[in-house]
């Protein structure tokens, strides 16, 4: 079952790979440069940027997906610096995994060629 899903995803355009790549790359770079106050927030920035990429993919598609369209709003709510959520590495990884699942769902159900 997993191999059929991966084959179906590989048959689609490769743009969907950008979303989890940006998110996880931001987390890794932010973890490596944790002492630098600016570069330490690259994990949060990667999650927000990847959610906007997913929202853009959903917006330009002819079949609209409300979950993918609202991903940037969720990212802004979760990673708002004045919110009560902890934006540490656990939250960033969980958000990136969620973005990965939403992206796979969007590509499998709504992506038109």
Automatic annotation (TrEMBL):
Keywords: Membrane, Transmembrane, Transmembrane helix. The chain crosses the membrane at residues 15-33, 39-59, 89-108. This is Uncharacterized protein. It comes from Methanolacinia petrolearia (strain DSM 11571 / OCM 486 / SEBR 4847).
